[in-house]
């Protein structure tokens, strides 16, 4: 970057003035979310939605389950601890689920935290960009740890900071860029951002070899973006692609009165992120009333988190899954503002205000509160689900599963059960790995990986013992046969 003149130095001064406030909040926020990630992993929150089905497939094969070709690297980053543990002889499904959740929650956070280290002294304020992406975007889908886009968008920011600030040798940067080939379809629009940053960096380098590497990186990221077009056009289920685009563009992940399954409500983390973006935009216009703005935002966040503890309408984890690509989408305008602020310090005046740091801190506290409360709800769900498994044999219909539960616990079991994964979750949560009962899905499904009523379709593997369940099915069949 060209050394700024006196006028540019005045414009750059706010970035430097935010250095200390950002240093003060960065460590505690990152440490708190790391603790939250461990808590979520211990409570097996990584099994939510498709998580249990993914873990079951890994337990069957003893290796990786790479479901989506354009997301293979994201899958590997999530699944590596589980695969390594199985190779070392770990057979306890609960421990494998804990490791699975740990990777889901901590690897994206570690990539974001690395951006703080990559930011040079005097420019630590730029860490607010990946941090805001994580808090406002990825946390909108934080409950659904199985989603790959938060992993991919965190890796995007890691690469962007590597390119812009170049704290590692060019060859190391080139190696770090290789996984972008199969991280996520979001690199259709994130890849060009990295290409632009690489081209800009190439122009500022004096060494010929280094310039060549950065130019090659620019071409590499353009090729990656082009590859994603093929993945998106040829996706096996076009209705899934179309619904995903519609949900993102129409903010369908924010509010859904009812999705026909009882999972409707409000995505509070997404709402808090949108409110935070609005507060940041108002910070410049209301600079003299910044304290009132921050206090108002804090009060709203506190009310929303409190509402989640009172009303189930404020706890809508299914909408978190719907928001799985939101962090990647939000990264596009954020990265544009980031690069513009680096190129022209005048753009930095839009966000370099002390109130912005306070807003980010309040947002972090709000997200921590909601996610911790959601994890507590999940722990109660797991407790009830395990109780059903321990007191039943054979295939348990949904009415049987909720029979005898208090109304609030029955509603929670309904709200947190996914459309098609209850049988998979039943196997993973079976006591001592011995499957005696499978809880059926709460609604009819158009597809599921296996028919829980057909013993020939049951998953098989060294970590899966379905002997008791097969015996229960045979006994039930003999009882009902004429």
Structure description:
The protein has a two-stranded antiparallel ribbon. A two-stranded parallel sheet has the order 3-4. The protein has two domains: 373 residues, no CATH class; 89 residues, no CATH class. It contains 20 helices and four strands. Helix 6 packs antiparallel against helix 7. Helix content is 66%, strand content 2%. By secondary structure, it is mainly alpha-helical. It is globular, with a radius of gyration of 24 Å.
Structural class, judged by helices and strands?
mainly alpha
| Content of β-strand | under 5%
Strand order of the largest sheet: 1-2
Please count the beta strands (DSSP E, at least 2 residues each). Answer: 4
Number of helices: 20
Taking the alpha carbons of the first and last residues, their distance comes to: 83 Å
State the helicity in percent bands.
Answer: 55-70%
Largest sheet: 2 strands, antiparallel
Gyration radius (Cα, Å) is 24 Å
Low-confidence stretches: 1-11
- Mean pLDDT, all residues: 90
Chain oligomer state: single chain
Query: Quick one: overall form?
Result: globular
SSE string: HHHHHHHHHHHEEHHHHHEHHHEH
Q: How many discrete domains?
A: 2
